[in-house]
Amino acid sequence: MSSNDGIQIPSRLPLLLTDEGVLLPGSTMRISVDTPRNMQLVKSRLLKGTSLKSTIIGVIPNTKDPEHDNQELPSLHSIGTAGLAVQVVGSNWPKPHYTLLITGLCRFRVAQMLKERPFVVAEVEQLDKLEQYTEGQELDGELGELAQRFYQDAVQLVGMLDMSVPVVAKLRRLLDSLPRETLPDVLASMIRTSNKEKLQVLDAVDLEERFKRALPLLTRQIEGLKLLQKTRKPRPDDDKRVLVVRKGGVFPGHQFSLDEEGEDEDGDDMAVLDKKVKEAGMPEHALRVCLKELKRLKKMPQSMPEYALTRSYVELMVELPWNKSTTDCLDIRAARVLLDNDHYAMEKLKKRVLEYLAVRQLKSALKGPILCFVGPPGVGKTSVGRSIARTLGREFHRIALGGVCDQSDIRGHRRTYVGSMPGRIINGLKTVGVNNPVFLLDEVDKLGKSLQGDPAAALLEVLDPEQNHSFTDHYLNVSFDLSQVLFIATANTTATIPPALLDRMEVLQVPGYTQEEKVEIAHRHLIPHQLEQHGLTPQQLQIPHHTTLDIITKYTREAGVRSLERKIGAICRAVAVKVAEGHKSPKVEQPSVDESLRESEMAAPPEMPIVIDPMALKDILGPPLFEMEVSERLTLPGVAIGLAWTPLGGEIMFVEASRMEGEGQLTLTGQLGDVMKESAHLAISWLRSNAKKYQLTNLTGGPDPLEGTDIHLHFPAGAVTKDGPSAGVTIVTCLASLFSGRLVRSDVAMTGEITLRGLVLPVGGIKDKVLAAHRAGLRRVILPKRNEKDLEEIPAPVRAELDFVAASSLSDVLNAAFDGGFPITTNPLPHPHVTSKL
């Protein structure tokens, strides 16, 4: 293709029809190819060609709508540009297409059309006789004067730009190195011109004519720039940055593009990004990776799919708070006041936060603790996390983990995947903009597991104080220090949290509220909030304390206060209707006699404030949802009350037993688990072995309770699955009542695990269970002796209203559960472990 005489192009060229612009010799242009003819040309010649000759194609401006490419070929422009395809990039989005980077070589004229399908091929005649322009040869005569004038104008135009920009300085050096005869084509492709004007330069085969056509375009650009500088307000370096300089490509020299936009769109943008990278304060290992990606980005054309991915990565690195942090508020007194104002009770949580602040005063480089608040819904676990952030003066970010089953949500996706993004931890740090926020990992006990990995396992590194100083996100692929982040996890139960994850967290139990605490919370927080939400004032609505207590006991049964807040909201809506009806709209005209009579017959507006009494409460909320049914259900032998723990708090649980003639079979119903079934068999065995001692008989009065008798044990709420060992003492008491024919005391509830020898073993959830018994109006609670230590967590008002019996054996349980002891004695002695009003 190339010889000593100059550049020679093939006599037969495939033609690329384009409507995106005009390619001039010496310039580089990106062309999008998506029509059938052009796509076939790329596939057949450029992708399959093996020689340099196969990459030379003819580029001719297309005067036809490319959407109708399948119709007959129109008459082509007679002159085109032979170009070298230096890059081919394919993509399927939004539709299949190729992007070509083509450098113009020389002009040609179409001599004869050889074929039109599958792509256009023509016989061409080369027009630019480049061999006559040898190095060092000077143009003379009128042509030399035109060339010199054109060169001077080009130097003037470039001199008006900011020479501190590297691409502008390179353009200035390029003007001195290029042969003068190539300047019209190069400058015409750089300055702002229409396609029609570029076609005129392309059609100028004669060099002198080419200078004459390009010179007015260059002069117009200079004059337009001068006028723009006069009309715009002067700013520092404004006269140097009025034109855009975009690097376009290189072959055989360099080619640039100038535009009157006022800024350097690409080069300046990269300079700003480079400045941000250096000012981000990254550690050395992260800065090294970021600079490497930025260097790749500068060399990458914007049309490449990887450009957007790399730029997004660099911008994420810049936006992360590598060294930005907030200063903690270490005033312990102010923190205590703020926590008390935001939340009533929760003394254990407040104490832990104040301890953290105290240690921070003594040691500033303290790693953030990793806390886990465990408790039923509605007790304020999430809101207390927000209050902790406000107390410390830190940013707060909540990450909901309920239902998350992909470990990439935590650690991010690798950048090799389409649609990859960082994990929630890194994304949260980007959102808050500091490296020491308070992160609330909500519902950590509801993490799932799938084929995409185990997110609970991914959290192990995040929540390990010994590892999270170098947490590595898959997308970021560099370590980030999480040691200053205060992580707070919330959960309803620890049963579903993997042991390894639970071991990394400091668990703080958040039990349910007592009735007195709920009343106080309602009047401190819930009622004022609902009044504000419904546009009411305390002068319009008042809810007395005894009404609030009725709502708590008769219309809600929960460990938290969410249902209580909804009931208060229902009262506010009902009162809002009354208040709205009391406001009469102003009337413009005088009412008639009939209207006056009708208004006088209407009810008078309600007196303010509206006080909610028990009658009004029933009218608004309806009949009570929960009545005290304990005494009614204990009217027959064979019924006892147990205490159960659920993720929603403690609950009372009835156990019912009946017997009938049969073959000694035991039937268990109520969705029981294996552990509870085994507890029932243990209870039967222990009672049979001690039947004579406790005077237990069967239906015929025989000494064996199961002889000729079938036993049916039922746990009501049959649709709810139940399991656990703590119902053992309740089952024994229920069956003892059945076999002896005696009633269990109606104010007693119990919990505890049993053994075959009649021992009572400790169980968990004592505080929640005791609060459930207190809510139900019970007065005596039987619990294992080894659980006496857990009574310290019970609020003092609740302990004062309950009698606790600490039982070490089933004999103690039966003596406390029946009036007069078990079996009946003439002078029953008080149980040695009864503690009254603890």
TrEMBL record:
This is Lon protease homolog 2, peroxisomal. ATP binds at residues 375-382. InterPro entries: AAA+_ATPase, ATPase_AAA_core, Lon_bac/euk-typ, Lon_lid, Lon_proteolytic, Lon_Prtase, Lon_prtase_N, Lon_prtase_N_sf. It comes from Chanos chanos. GO terms for cellular component: peroxisomal matrix. Keywords: ATP-binding, Hydrolase, Nucleotide-binding, Peroxisome, Protease, Serine protease. The active site is at residues 726, 769. A motif (Microbody targeting signal) lies at residues 836-838. GO terms for biological process: protein import into peroxisome matrix; protein processing; protein quality control for misfolded or incompletely synthesized proteins.
